[in-house]
Amino acid sequence: MKKNTTMNQVCNLSSGTIVNGKWNGENYTVIRLLGKGATGNVYLADSKKGKVALKLSENSMAITSEVNVLKRFSKVQGTSLGPSLLDVDDWKVDSQKILPFYVMEYVQGNNFLEFIQERGIVWADVLILQLLSNLEKLHQQGWVFGDLKPENLLISGPPPKIRCIDVGGTTQQGRSIKEFTEFFDRGYWGLGTRKAEPSYDLFSVAMVLINASFPKRFTKKVDVDGKTQLFERIEQHPYLLKHKQVLQKALLGKYTSALEMKTDFVHLLSVETNKAKPRTQTYKTQMATANKAKSQSPKSANSQANQTRKQAKKTKRRKKTSGILETIIIILGVFIIYSLYAYHYLM
Ligand SMILES: Nc1ncnc2c1ncn2[C@@H]1O[C@H](COP(=O)(O)OP(=O)(O)OP(=O)(O)O)[C@@H](O)[C@H]1O
């Protein structure tokens, strides 16, 4: 999208600048720039309500459209689709310049990729389930998020909670997607149209997971079709491979609702959890058998010193492996319990 240089000059506010609302009379003291978007800049600011995020733009149409989306989001019960809207006003910069702005809740936290890089890919499961719940509610209201990408997903908490920011791409179902980023756009990969429908967002969800596994985004190859290239990527990463079925269906637009995708996702996770159990039992059984055998043959152990030394080494190795395995099992257990807790608590 074309950048408006005048806007960028005016919108480059330094720390301490006071933005005064012409109509509502609220004052906001700029702390720092949070980010620059295509339509304006977002600042962290101090206000009588505490820290807030303030978006300033020369483009009053864009501000109005985003404000309308945030208002609509606030009516969707039980979700955290976007930051809550706190104020909408104009700022009289000088005698000739008036800039529209809106103030929203400051969502403190890392974006999706930063969070995953810090905590590990296993967290993607919990976050994607939350995202799918939010999308389901948004789609039910007749809207599509559009520009779904890791930068637009902030993780607040604890407990970790996914929040969609940058509502500029939110489009009414049936219309053409307003804003998109190539990597997350099914049109770019030749896997569908840019018509706003739930499957458009669900394709992007799959791409968010692919991006979480391959943080360096790749471009579409000229000589290979999009489907082949993306399916190949899925085969190359253990996390993606584990979610292959769901990802492939989402990429091919086979899900007509976020709920359907979420159900498949939950099913896949429960299958994985069940698979993990017998492996643990088998190992324990093996250990018990080995210990039993060892205690039943002390004589042969005494007469064969070499064998005993080897046995001791083996046992030491086994104990070490057992320790590592136990730690993994405990971490896995805690994670599953936490996931269930987060899942029930947040959904
Ligand atoms: N409510 C918020 N709380 C915290 N940070 C925010 C909030 N809103 C925006 N930001 C930060 O400001 C950045 C710019 O936000 P904005 O939504 O305007 O632009 P963008 O995502 O770059 O948009 P575009 O895709 O329109 O270019 C975001 O990437 C994010 O880092």
Automatic annotation (TrEMBL):
Binding positions (ATP): K55
Keywords: ATP-binding, Kinase, Membrane, Nucleotide-binding, Transferase, Transmembrane, Transmembrane helix
Gene3D superfamilies to which the protein is assigned, alphabetical: Transferase(Phosphotransferase) domain 1
Listed Polar residues bias regions: 285-303
Domain of life: Bacteria
UniProt-listed SUPFAM superfamilies: Protein kinase-like (PK-like) (SSF56112)
Entry annotated with the keyword Cytoplasm: no
MF terms (GO), sorted A to Z: kinase activity
A Pfam match: Pkinase
Region described as Disordered: spans on this chain: 285-318
Membrane-spanning residues: 323-343
PROSITE patterns: PROTEIN_KINASE_ATP (PS00107), PROTEIN_KINASE_DOM (PS50011)
Residue ranges of every copy of the Protein kinase domain listed in the record: 28-270
Protein name: Protein kinase family protein
Naturally occurring in which organism (per UniProt): Metabacillus bambusae
Lineage: Bacteria, Bacillati, Bacillota, Bacilli, Bacillales
